[in-house]
Design a protein that fits this description.
mainly alpha, Arp2/3 complex 21 kDa subunit ARPC3, two-stranded antiparallel sheet
Amino acid sequence: MDMSKKDKVYCLILAVFCTVLVLTNIIGVKLFHMLPHSLGKVCWGNPASPEGTYCTLTSGIITYPLTFLLTDTVSELYGRKRADFMVAIGFVVSLVMVLFVAAAVALPGSSIWTSSTLGFSTVACQAVDAETGACLVPGMQQGYESVFTLPGTLVLGSMTAYLFAQFLDNRLFHYWRNKTQGRHLWLRNNASTIVSQLVDTLIVNIIFLWWGLGLPIEICFQILIANYVFKVLIAALDTPLVYLLTSFLRKHLNLPPAEAEYQTP
């Protein structure tokens, strides 16, 4: 059976959504510095450290906010059921990714692979020649594990936060959509994302940073605030993208304006 143009576009958005979500799970374990403390009150750190005082953010923040843009777009054009289905598929894909990554990490490395740095100068050595300092046994397996091993608390935190936040986002989006009779896309886009991102940030930081990594609660709170403020800024900045994307797809799919759905004949 041939798919309609509308269903093809939905499948494309679903594929992009799952790709972004998988990338978020892979890169999200890293914490990085961004923006000096002098730029705002949301940044904390150790002034005596070599890095100085910067905002500490989780690297998943690079990609994860895009998932809310995509779910809001699907909610606007396809309805809540399609958006919820996309969230559920994303969860299943993420679990499958975790299982395959764990299997790949557990496989014993070939001697051909483990005995060569393959040009990666950053791979740590398991054994070094005492006289020449040359690397005798490159730690390819250890390097691979350090990149692809996903801590259980990160998986638990990110997946729990994902389910709560995304389903909440879909419901809040449609609550505001119905309240405004299809008007003010900017309101439902930002209001739903701001609330759901707060829930997401709270859950993932408490489970991963406090419970998993054992960071002091004040440090967890500082990272939480910095991440949330950054997410709110992204939510505000992606509003024009939501308008452009929904407007383009409405024309491409010959869909009526949102307000028309609430007009009585």
